[in-house]
Design a protein that fits this description.
With 112 residues, the chain is an all-beta fold. It has 2 domains: 38 residues, N-terminal domain of TfIIb (Single Sheet), CATH 2.20.25.10; 54 residues, SH3 Domains (SH3 type barrels), CATH 2.30.30. The protein contains no helices and 11 strands. The strands form 4 sheets. Strands 1-2-3 form a 3-stranded antiparallel beta sheet, with no helix packed on it. Strands 7-4-11 form a 3-stranded antiparallel beta sheet, with no helix packed on it. A 3-stranded antiparallel beta sheet has the order 8-9-10, with no helix packed on it. A hairpin with a 2-residue loop joins strand 1 and strand 2. It starts with 15 loop residues before the first strand and ends with a strand. Belongs to the YjdM family. This is Alkylphosphonate utilization protein. InterPro entries: YjdM (IPR004624), YjdM_C (IPR013988), YjdM_N (IPR013987). It comes from Aliidiomarina sanyensis.
């Protein structure tokens, strides 16, 4: 068959070269041969105190946060249950009682 390595994302054996990159046609993952691929587990999201956060954690807001496009404010001490970690500038996806779904920055919360 081929001498190409399996896809690090889905372990498919159907990988091929595309210039300098290796490509997996099954999941669309692209990587450079010989380099370590960065995975989501490598990026550790930490709260304001440096404690690592995980999906399903409960956090407390440490600063009044204005809700963009609204006159609502998330007050200091608001507990947010069952958070979900996501990629991006606002790395916490959650639902706050009385406000609804929101994205928060981890620098404004502490682990409860």
């Amino acid at each position: 068959m081929s001498d190409f390595p399996n896809c690090p994302s889905c372990q498919s054996t159907f990988t091929y070269h595309d210039g300098r990159m290796l490509v997996c046609p099954e999941c669309g993952h692209e990587w450079i041969e010989g380099e370590q691929s960065s995975t989501e587990s490598d990026a550790v999201i930490k709260d304001a105190n440096g404690n690592p956060l995980a999906d399903g954690d409960t956090v407390t807001v440490i600063k009044d946060l204005k809700v963009k496009g609204s006159s609502l404010v998330v007050k200091v001490g608001t507990k947010v249950k069952n958070i979900r970690l996501v990629d991006g500038d606002h790395d916490i996806d959650c639902k706050i009682d009385g406000i609804g779904p929101m994205k928060l920055k981890s620098e404004f919360v502490k682990k409860a």
